[in-house]
Write a structure and sequence with these properties.
739 residues; mainly alpha; 25 helices; 12 strands; elongated; Anoctamin; transmembrane; cell membrane
Length: 739
Amino acid sequence: QDEEKWDFVLVSDIHEVGSEREIKRKKFLDELSKKGFTIKKIEDQKLFYGVRAPEHIFRQYQWLLRNPDSRQQSPDGHHHVPVTTRIRIVNFILQHTVTPDLEKLRDLIKKKVFEAAFPLHEKGELSEFLKEKWARWRVIFCHQPIEKIRWYFGEKVALYFAWLGWYTFLLGIAAAAGLLVFVAGITVFNSSQVSKEICEAKDTIMCPLCDQQCPFWRLSDTCTYARVTHMIDNEGTVLFAMFMAIWATVFLELWKRQRARVVTDWDLYRWDEEEEELALELINNLQHEPRQHQHSYFRSTIVLLLVLVMIAVLVGIAHALVIYRVVATALFTQSSSGFLREQANTVAVMTGAVLHYITIVIMSKVNRRVALFLCDLEEPRTFSQRENTFTVKIFTFQFFTNFSSLIYIAFFLGRINGHPGNYVRIAGKWRLEECHPSGCITDLFIQMAIIMLLKQTISNVMEYLNPWICHQLRRKRLQRPKKRRMMLGEEEEAEDPCKRQWLSNYELNEVNTFSLFDEFLEMVIQYSFTTIFVAAFPLAPLLAFCNNLFEIHLDAIKMMRLHRRMVPRKANDIGIWLLVLEAIGILAVIGNGLVIAITSDFIPVLVYKYTYSPCVTENSTGVDCSTGYINHSLSTFRIQDFEFYTKLPQMPPGFVTTNITEYQDYRNADDYSYTAQFWHIFAARLAFLILFEHVALCVKLIAAWYIPDVPLSVKNTFLGRKHSDLRKELRWVMLGVHT
């Protein structure tokens, strides 16, 4: 039975005898034969070549690295070498075998000499266990079998699922806190003095929200929105933003401890990736010379400039979305539909959010191609270096793709649009959009909610359906000829036992080098949404938590049932992703500080309470200190000062024509310059931002110091090992002296 176990399968079209492709294929297989590989050929609609490496290759590997794998017992091992190790070594040799024409397997696949190369999903106790106890929806709340995942997919995949499980577990705490803050906001739904004043402001006439066919409107028209805004814009949000900054640090510190425990159990804590790669190179070719470390400032400068150009393009797309919302608002206000006219701003924001999601989907594909091109320009020395540079570039591009529009809405919307009588206009025609009448944070909340919901519904459905449909289509296409032969009644010769297994693996969807990378990127972008603007959307951790419960098993089902087996990779941490997550933690502090200081009304209300409110000016103790805030935050405007673009509408029914309307800003009534209150609030915003960020960063540093990266149990394990090793060495020395 051992004789029928194959490490890899190569698939090729049936080429004409003597054709260039057939000759190239033969040359490659001959090179493998020279290295002692056993090759088995099976012909069907395609040519299948099973390859098995000679045992001496694995003995060399174990001897060179004194690898802990030699001490492991694996249910499917050859001479105690785990199958994952066999596959990894064989894949390396296949990828680095050079034909006399100086072509590698990658070049031959590009030239259609081979169609695919993949390791096989095994039929055995381990794979059946993973299919039944892990890659099923019904075990969604069960513990993940990380050790068994490692035996089957290798350490890199096992660490991804260990990290994702740990992240989801701690996300449950953040989700509960976010839900608590949101529910607390709902309980004070009607008790906010600010929203009460808005609901009672039936006599306050506000400036039109657009130039054409927009009416004057009562401030009380936004009563419902004002109450909803207070659900997310309250004192609890500030505490929650601080909590999330600490949570992000604690999560990473606890993960470092968890990872140290896991890799110590695997005997990989001190594993050296570079040493392993050099060993594999020498096993493949004894004459191999290592590629030297190099750095080119010229290349780095070119890459940096191209990265900046790409970022400029992504920011330009965010500007295009802004222009869309401006033009859409203008068009919706002129619509024949009464609903569209009344809700023009909200509809423009919502359709803009959907359009933003579509640009995310499209630009994700463009970003990948650009990042790969830039990696090729840099010419990294090893695969891991290439992966690291690719990770940093694609994350940077994806960050700007996902967050440029949100950054504009959070920090610029409604602050750079001028004021009545002197609006900032695009192409001298369309007014820049204003915040939602109930506050700028409402726009951010709507945008975040729509993007997160679309990403976690449509994207996940497509992530599952796409490979499932492709798998079904491939199966049908490959099974047709077999059915036809059976219908004709032709007798088939006894089928090779390997043929069915190789065909069923070939029917599965192809995996590539970046299959696991894509899963990490998806989760890290989600982590960014969960932490950076969480002050505007406290439900983000809850949505992420629910999504991840499904994501773990969606990924498991894809890997076990819909995709070919991934080539196992050895690893002892999640690599450069940890640095990316730490960078996001710092961005989260800055982002949430800016949201509370700039987007939220928290600071203006606070300044009013302690400087201008009745509690201060009249020493009133029986009234709410925010009484009168709404009137204080409005400025008056003379109708005759409107620009000629503005078509003046009729006054609301029941109002006499007046020469004065109001708008939200702190400006003087005579020359529309900023009032002293504006500068007072501006100073308070800056002071809060500096205080919040310094306190949050200090707390993060204290939390990072307080929680050691490596548990004492791991340190003691290594201490014991060193002691026993030295004792053995000393005994040998003393034994030699006595003899």
